[in-house]
Amino acid sequence: MILDPKAIFTFVIRILLILIVGILPLQAVTAHEVPTDVVVRTILKAEGNELNFLVRVPLEAMRDVNFPQTGPGYLVISEADEYLRDAATIWIAPEVTLYENDKPLREWEIGAVRLALPSDRSFEDYASALNTVTSPALSDNEELRRDQALLDVLIRYPIDSASSEFSIAPEFARLGLETTTVVRFLHVDGVERVFQFRGDPGLLRLDPRWHHAFFRFVGSGIEHILDGVDHLLFIICLLIPFRRIRPLVVIITSFTVAHSITLIASAFGMVPNVLWFPPLIETLIAASIVYMALENIVGSQWQKRWIIAFGFGLVHGFGFSFALSEILQFAGGHLLTSLLAFNLGVEIGQLFIIILAVPILNFVFGNVIARRIGTILLSAILAHSGWHWMSERAGQLVEYSFAWPELNFAFFASLMRWLMLLVFIGAVLWTMVRLYDRFLRGSIVNRPS
User: Fold this and answer.
1) Cα 425 to Cα 419: distance, rounded to the nearest angstrom
2) What's the rounded Cα separation, in Å, for the pair 438 and 432?
3) How far lies 5's CA from each of 2, 8, 10, 14, 19, in Å?
4) Residue 95 DSSP one-character state
5) Cα(341)–Cα(217) distance, integer angstroms
6) Residue 100's pLDDT is what?
7) Which residues pair with residue 45 across a beta bridge?
8) What is the DSSP string of 135-166?
9) Which residues fall within 8 angstroms of residue 428, CB to CB, at 6 or more apart?
10) What distance in Å separates the CA atoms of residue 287 and residue 388, rounded to the nearest whole number?
């Protein structure tokens, strides 16, 4: 077949045109990149038969909306109202679902839109925010650029009663690479609840009942223990050499009691308010894996291991408390219920790990590899992982500055609380020694599993 030069030239021209036409829209789409950090501020208040939802977002998060500009990128504010409403309709209103008594509010309207200066602080309270959003637009003389401006929006939802139970499911995460949302809810009785979270939290009950808080925190506890790799490895270290009922009951109960003490104490403010404490605990958690794995290698007696599990359980309880502190804002007025539910969730997740891991270990040590060799090999792997984490976290810990606390009233009050906690821990440990002495009687000789 003879190739026609004219046909080849025509083909090349068509390809170039296709590429040009394809690249131009791509450049237009990528002209507004996804912002790195976006803070969304919202306020909700029910008044009469209407729920007012105030939202403030950075204007640069409203991508694919070409606002009128002039000169070196200044917004033409007098011509922006239609575009602002489009942005609110596309990027804000569809990204949140409000519920009244668990029924989604499908009807809504954009009540007002307005640009605000980055220095504006009106969203600190409802009255100021509402007044700002409904005020006349800024002047074009402000010389406000897109990456500086804030978009304020008022969305109105018809409701049956201001006394109803309200929930919100915000999905603002796509507005930025990392999105932080602040939700202020003004209850009809005047109580204000403030929530702050990263990403999308799912359904957030603004005034939860006790059972709402209970089930949410049970799920959070299960999720935390299953997502915490270091906690998982420590539990596996406890299980490797001792997999019969008696050792499991003694060791796991000891670990559970210990981390429950420090978890509950932390929820009531028994955590040092210093920056180096969380990395210290994370380092000690990694060290607990290393120690327990090495003890498995050299050999250990389960009648004594429960004391070590108790000591490290106190450390892991502080680790659990860091996760709890981030979500305790969702407890509403049910602090104790949420605390106990989170701890219950941790225990459920822990029990799931044990039920899953023990049969697997028994099968491997009974059919694949000798028990002693398998214990050494698996413990060595866990020790290596723990050592890597410990070294990395210790490196971060030493970067913090340590200073002696001031000997003032606050210091001695905190010291008194810690002494009371130590006395309580000592009393619990003494009680457990007496109980375990009866439970372990007749099992002086260690029999490998």
Assistant:
1) 10
2) 10
3) 9, 5, 9, 14, 21
4) G
5) 5
6) 94
7) 52, 186
8) SPPPPGGG--BTTT-EEEEEEEEE-S-TTS-E
9) 257, 261
10) 10
Q: What percent of the chain has pLDDT over 70?
A: 89
How many CB atoms sit inside 10 A of residue 230's CB?
A: 19
d(CA 238, CA 346): 16
Query: pLDDT per residue over 117-143, tens digit each?
Result: 999 999 999 999 999 999 999 988 888
Q: Look up the pTM and report it.
A: 0.75
Q: Which of 283, 59, 274 is nearest to 151 (CA)?
A: 59
**Calpha distance 46→23 (Å, rounded):** 48
Q: How far is CA 261 from CA 134, 254, 311, in A?
A: 51, 11, 11
Q: Which residues contact 108 (CB under 8 A, 6 or more apart)?
A: 53, 93, 155, 156, 157
- Three-class secondary structure of residue 184 per DSSP: strand
Say how far apart CA 198 and CA 178 lie, in whole Å. Answer: 7
d(CA 258, CA 305): 14
Place of tokens 């030239």: 9
Rg (CA), the chain: 30
Instruction: For 204-247, write each residue's pLDDT tens digit.
Output: 999 888 999 999 999 998 988 888 888 888 888 888 887 777 77
* CA-based nearest residue to 259, from 284, 279, 239: 284
Q: Measured between alpha carbons, how far is residue 161 from residues 46, 47, 109, 110, 155 in Å?
A: 8, 8, 18, 20, 17
Distance (Å, whole) CA 424 – CA 411? 20
Q: How far is 203 from 345, CA to CA, in rounded Å?
A: 19
Do residues 206 and 168 make contact, with C-beta atoms less than 8 angstroms apart? Answer: yes
- Dihedral angle at the C-alpha atoms of 76, 77, 83, 89, nearest 10 degrees? 150
Biggest distance spanned by C-alpha atoms of the chain = 99
